[in-house]
Write a structure and sequence with these properties.
It is built from 20 helices and 11 strands. The chain is α/β, with parallel strands linked by helices. The chain has 3 domains: 151 residues, 3-Layer(aba) Sandwich (D-Maltodextrin-Binding Protein, domain 2); 100 residues, D-Maltodextrin-Binding Protein, domain 2 (3-Layer(aba) Sandwich); 182 residues, Lysozyme (Orthogonal Bundle), CATH 1.10.530.10. Strands 1, 4, 5, 6, 7, 8, 9, 10 and 11 form a 9-stranded mixed beta sheet that branches. A two-stranded antiparallel ribbon has the order 2-3. Helix 6 links the parallel strand 8 and strand 9. Helix 13 crosses helix 20. The chain is globular.
Length: 468
């Protein structure tokens, strides 16, 4: 493990030393040649992704800011959450970037950058039990919230109206552990942020939202009261520019744009089918990865969205097989039997590669993959029509976040009559792409990556052709 972490440090553009603790208030970044940043390991802040790289909204923002200033980054990963702001008050870091909301209490003690995201505190409950209808139903119940979280301020305001409401502040890093206990029926309710719940419910489908608590709050970076004025000004300029040029919107779309796509039944069904069917087809998806370079879990997510991993699936328009391929596509990919699961999966993977390679070279990942998924559904021509309309609206045709807002217009005469390929149900392409993204997220967490070069089919079932 230590060797792995050392290798990751060499790959990262900046130094990461989570155990570093200054013995005195930190000197200005320019003097040190580095930024010292308090953060936390969480799905909404900074974490190691499936490729072994650090990811997350806060991580990406910190890296962009440091590059702009020409500085390295030294991270202080503080756990649990409630330790972060006291460490900042002791000036152990230049600022905290940890998904922290601006509250009235914090305004008295700290400075803040411009807000980059609005969040809403919500009450989560277990859908196996009766849903609470309002705050009165919380009286006498076991309610948990992360110690140090901004949602505690909302609970205090609620208690002013309902004095008998009580809650337990749990010293954890984020609310996922609380939501797991909620899913298992160990507690009654959890107070968390809506975007955190949206991520968790993809893995715990019986954890759902009851109602919001309090007003939405802005997230921001937090600085000590006597922070270096130059650094605070630089952060303000940085955030205002990212908001103005659309970079912030793109970043939030990347991490949260598909968070609410799947409902409780969708997630529960997917998790059941993952256990029941995926072991049969996983070796085929992995072989397709070896042939195309596309992560097998993305291909599996696409296959589930298309057919629920049913090799006999047939649509009213005649597309067939596990990856739902048209006659033209299977002919071009050299498929002899559309109902042969292995052939169908490999052909679908090759078709997705073809679509990705057809897109203009300037389009970067992950937008390139998301646009290709949309084209997989409606065809490349209709996708290009959507990109044309996107450009006419003065939006960026190379960004999925912009294109997906325009594609549904292709079903309206006033728009499709002005483009080359005419009518299509562009909204269906948006649904497919966003669902695939959501299923892919689940598989990234639950299924291991595939490393080509190992024996693929030593323990795999035979070719999964299903006869009618």
């Amino acid at each position: 493990m230590r060797k792995l972490l050392a290798s990751l440090a060499l790959l990262l553009p900046f130094v990461c030393e989570p155990t570093f603790v200054p013995s005195r208030p930190v000197a200005p970044p320019g003097t040190l040649g580095e930024l010292i940043v308090l953060t936390r390991n969480a799905s909404t802040t900074r974490y190691v992704d499936q490729e072994g790289r650090y990811s997350g909204v806060e991580n990406d923002l910190i890296q962009m800011f440091a590059r702009e200033l020409g500085l390295r980054v030294r991270y202080l990963d503080r756990q649990p959450l409630y330790q972060i702001l006291p460490a900042l008050q002791r000036q152990q870091a230049h600022f905290a970037a940890a998904g922290l909301a601006i509250t009235s209490d914090r305004l008295d003690r700290f400075q803040f950058s411009p807000s980059y995201q609005m969040v809403q505190a919500v009450l989560a409950y277990n859908s196996d039990k009766r849903a609470p209808r309002g705050p009165k139903d919380l009286v006498g119940k076991r309610i948990e919230v992360v110690k140090g979280a901004a949602e505690i301020e909302d609970l205090r305001l609620l208690r002013a109206r309902f004095p008998k409401i009580r809650w337990h502040e749990v010293p954890e890093n984020d609310s996922e552990g609380l939501l797991i206990r909620l899913s298992q029926g160990e507690i009654d309710y959890v107070v968390t942020e809506a975007h955190v719940l949206d991520i968790a419910r993809k893995f715990y489908p019986n954890v759902v939202r009851a109602f919001p608590l309090g007003d939405p709050k802005p997230l921001a970076w937090v600085f000590p009261r006597d922070a270096d004025p130059k650094l605070v000004d630089q952060a303000e300029e940085f955030f205002l520019r990212l908001i103005y040029d659309g970079t912030m919107r793109q970043l939030l779309e990347r991490y949260y744009g598909h968070g609410e796509r799947l409902n409780q039944l969708d997630v529960a069904h997917f998790l059941r089918q993952r256990e029941k069917l995926l072991p049969t087809y996983a070796p085929m998806f992995k072989e397709a990865q070896e042939l195309t370079g596309i992560d097998w879990r993305l291909l599996a997510a696409l296959g589930f969205q298309e057919s629920h991993w049913n090799p006999l699936a047939t649509s009213p328009t005649g597309v067939r097989g596990l990856m739902m391929l048209t006659v033209d596509t299977v002919d071009r990919m050299g498929v002899t039997d559309r109902l042969d699961a292995r052939e169908n999966i490999i052909a679908g993977a090759k078709y997705l590669v073809e679509l990705k390679e057809t897109l203009p070279l300037r389009i970067r990942e992950p937008d390139r993959t998301w646009l290709a998924l949309a084209a997989y559904n409606i065809g490349y021509g209709h996708l290009e029509d959507g990109r044309v309309l996107t450009q006419r609206r003065k939006l960026d045709p190379d960004l999925w976040s912009d294109v997906k807002s325009i594609l549904p217009l292709l079903s309206q005469y006033e728009f499709y009559s002005t483009v080359k390929f005419g009518f299509c149900r562009g909204g269906e392409a948006v649904v497919l792409t966003e669902n695939v993204r959501a299923y892919h997220d689940i598989l990234l967490r639950l299924e291991a990556p595939h490393t080509p070069g190992f024996e693929l089919f030593a323990d795999s079932p035979p070719n999964a052709r299903v006869s009618q």
